[in-house]
């Protein structure tokens, strides 16, 4: 039986142990140790990494009384080995997992919310709560969770006796069999969990709930904590900094600056549209129909202006086409007085490699033919 050092102390980063067994497993080896601080995974937390006797640890698993360390090369039984945890990875996971207990514990106390889903991603936790929360309630939850961190509230993990366990009102995601391990955050939460946790809430550093959405009658919340919360804030800060210098305003005034920009854009769009319309009128006025038809090629212009051009063209003749864009990427509008364009839309679109539809009087869409192909199509079509 392996001594579970990770339950005695979740902060052991290195330890020495004796190799008690080593069995080949495929092209790897499963090694048992007299004691281990490598957590084999469970409670939603993945197993630890690190090195055993200098050999990289591929994975750890628990089966019955045994804990197997999978290595790429064998270790001789009886040998004393130095073991090293991938502490950065383990500590980051403990920050995330312990933060999740605080948030779910608070939501349980305040709203009676159950934790109906929990997934640890490499740099965040996705958790589901069974109650819907407003934006204000989510802000409260985030603030209170951080208050627990600032208060440096202790975490206590233990295996209670049967009688003690029966008397305790603890949270649990499923019916538990065998020894139940409890994780208590004083005054905040009591929850069954087999994973290693921080010893003091202050180790978590920071808890953020950057995303939340309604999900199956409750909420699906993204949680970041510790290093991962800091990294996210740094990324956001860099994005805000870039925007702020691009728009020459301090970050807190970005909102108004973007609003101003959008309204300027709206105004310019309207002005452009008016100018395009005027240009189309001039173009249509000076155009002379050929064989009772008119066709126009214009630079990029909006669809309204293009439609206006075709309508103006149709005042001079019975068939009019306008193409806007460039070789291979055109917007088109075809207008007719007297000819059923809708009935011909399939063959028209096939000829110009287009997509579009409309009424008997007007077809519109986009096409990918070259200008030469469009000219050729038009010769055939109106001739
Ligand atoms: Zn847990």
Plain-language structure description:
A hairpin with a 2-residue loop joins strand 5 and strand 6 (55-63). The mean pLDDT is 95. This protein is 36% helix and 31% strand. It has helices at 5-8, 87-111, 135-150, 162-166, 226-246, 254-286, 303-313, 341-352, 371-382, and strands spanning 3-4, 14-25, 28-33, 35-36, 50-52, 55-63, 66-71, 80-85, 115-120, 125-129, 155-158, 182-185, 189-192, 207-215, 218-225, 293-298, 319-326, 329-336, 354-358, 362-367. The strands form 5 sheets. Strands 2-3-7-6-5-8 form a 6-stranded antiparallel barrel. The chain is α+β, with helices and mostly antiparallel strands. It has 3 domains: 3-85, Elongation Factor Tu (Ef-tu), domain 3; 91-243, 2-Layer Sandwich (Threonyl-tRNA Synthetase, Chain A, domain 2); 269-382, Diaminopimelate Epimerase, Chain A, domain 1 (Roll), CATH 3.10.310. It has 9 helices and 20 strands. The protein is elongated and about 100 Å long. Residues 43, 97, 101, 193, 195 line the site of zinc ion.
Q: Please tell me the total number of domains.
A: 3
Mean pLDDT: 95
Number-wise, the strands total: 20
Poorly predicted runs of 5 or more residues: none
How is the largest sheet built, in terms of strand order?
Answer: 2-3-7-6-5-8
Strand content: 25-35%
Q: Mind telling me the C-alpha Rg?
A: 34 Å
Can you tell me the CATH topology of the largest domain?
Answer: Threonyl-tRNA Synthetase, Chain A, domain 2
Q: CATH superfamily membership of the largest domain, which one? A: Threonyl-trna Synthetase, Chain A, domain 2
State the CATH class of the largest domain: Alpha Beta
| Terminal Cα span | 93 Å
CATH-scheme architecture of the largest domain: 2-Layer Sandwich
How would you describe the shape? Answer: elongated
Ligand names: zinc ion
- How does the major sheet shape up? 6 strands, antiparallel, barrel
**Number of helical segments with 4 or more residues:** 9
Estimated helix fraction: 25-40%
- SS-based structural class? alpha+beta
């Amino acid at each position: 039986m392996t001594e579970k050092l990770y339950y005695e102390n979740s902060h052991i980063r290195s330890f020495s142990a004796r190799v008690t067994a080593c069995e080949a497993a495929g092209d790897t080896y499963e090694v048992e140790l007299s004691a281990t601080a490598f957590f084999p995974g469970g409670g939603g937390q993945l197993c630890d990494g690190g090195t055993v006797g200098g050999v990289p640890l591929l994975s750890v698993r628990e089966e019955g009384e045994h804990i197997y360390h999978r290595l790429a090369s064998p270790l001789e039984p009886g040998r004393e080995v130095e073991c090293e945890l991938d502490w950065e990875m383990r500590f980051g996971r403990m920050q995330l997992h312990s933060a999740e207990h605080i948030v779910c514990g608070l939501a349980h106390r305040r709203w009676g919310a159950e934790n109906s889903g929990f997934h640890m991603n490499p740099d965040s936790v996705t958790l589901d709560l069974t109650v819907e929360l407003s934006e204000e309630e989510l802000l409260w939850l985030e603030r209170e969770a951080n208050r627990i961190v600032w208060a440096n509230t202790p975490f206590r993990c233990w295996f209670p006796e049967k009688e003690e366990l029966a008397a305790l009102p603890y949270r649990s995601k499923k019916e538990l069999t065998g020894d139940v391990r409890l994780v208590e955050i004083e005054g905040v939460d009591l929850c069954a969990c087999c994973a290693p946790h921080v010893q003091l809430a202050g180790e978590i550093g920071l808890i953020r709930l950057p995303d939340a959405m309604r999900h199956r009658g409750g909420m699906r919340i993204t949680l970041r904590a510790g290093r991962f919360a800091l990294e996210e804030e740094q990324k956001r800060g860099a994005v805000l900094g870039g925007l702020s210098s691009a728009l020459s305003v301090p970050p807190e005034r970005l909102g108004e600056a973007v609003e101003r920009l959008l309204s300027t854009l709206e105004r310019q769009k309207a002005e452009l549209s008016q100018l395009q319309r005027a240009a189309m009128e001039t173009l249509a006025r000076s155009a002379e129909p050929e064989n009772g038809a008119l066709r126009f090629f214009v630079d990029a212009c909006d669809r309204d202006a293009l439609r206006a051009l075709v309508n103006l063209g149709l005042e001079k003749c019975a068939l009019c086409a306008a193409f806007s864009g460039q070789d291979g990427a055109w917007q088109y509008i075809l207008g007719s007085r007297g000819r059923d364009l809708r009935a011909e839309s399939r063959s028209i679109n096939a000829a110009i490699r287009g997509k579009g539809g409309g009424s008997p009087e007007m077809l519109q869409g986009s096409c990918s033919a070259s200008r030469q192909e469009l000219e050729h199509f038009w010769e055939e079509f109106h001739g």
